[in-house]
Amino acid sequence: MAGRLVIRGLACGRGGRLVVPPLDLALSAGEAVLVTGENGAGKSTLLRTLAGLLPPLAGGVRVEGLPAADGEPARSLADIAHYIGHRNALKGARRVGAELAFWARFLGGAGGLSPEAALGALGLPEGVARLRCSDLSAGQARRAALARLLVAPRPLWLLDEPTNALDAATQARFAALCRHHLSSGGMILAATHQPVDLGPAARTLVLEPQPAGLALAESGEDEGWEAIG
Ligand SMILES: Nc1ncnc2c1ncn2[C@@H]1O[C@H](COP(=O)(O)OP(=O)(O)OP(=O)(O)O)[C@@H](O)[C@H]1O
């Protein structure tokens, strides 16, 4: 994988209020950014905006030199990103293996691991694939959600508190998977309160909470930037 993600003047809001003031950030193949900041600083808001779940207040993102799952040049983050939010997005009534197979089909692309292999990479024994998602422990469910990253290869991982509920050994295992993703040319933007060792290619972005009622100054320089989503 090669390519670049360029975020320019991206401002994010919640409930009509500015939460993340205009932000410039470039991420090249093999690089990671750890987004930190106190509770309420806007980490989830930034990731949800990048994932296309919230409309940006201003600015945008350009994807350069990356193919979408169908091999065509990617035009938006939706073509190249995985998003793992606070919630695991696992259908309770479905078996874990079937759920991961669904995500592999839904996200498309070739070259992903089988559900069993992906679960194994997160340290879950083979039998877990046959359990219903609703029967998993909190840490098992988080691992199953993270296994999505491996069944459908995508260059950009947007991760919101990915190691929540994981035991120490699994946190280290997941950090190693992240470093492998980066060394294969992937990119990671991860919000976290816990230290995650993503290696030397990781930078830190600290978000500061914004005062309530802050307005966004107009820049009028958004031409040529792709809409997010
Ligand atoms: N649905 C919502 N409607 C209105 N405001 C919201 C909503 N969700 C979050 N906010 C506000 O947006 C701001 C940023 O919240 P966000 O969840 O992005 O912070 P965070 O940095 O991820 O916090 P944490 O570390 O607690 O997960 C907070 O002030 C919060 O109150």
TrEMBL record:
GO molecular function terms attached to this record: ATP binding; ATP hydrolysis activity; transmembrane transporter activity
Keywords, in A-Z order: ATP-binding, Cytochrome c-type biogenesis, Membrane, Nucleotide-binding, Translocase, Transport
Domain ABC transporter: 5-228
UniProt-listed Gene3D superfamilies: P-loop containing nucleotide triphosphate hydrolases
Keyword Thylakoid: no
Top-level taxon: Bacteria
Alphabetical GO biological process terms: cytochrome complex assembly
Family in the record: Belongs to the ABC transporter superfamily.
Protein name: Cytochrome C biogenesis protein
Native organism: Aureimonas ureilytica
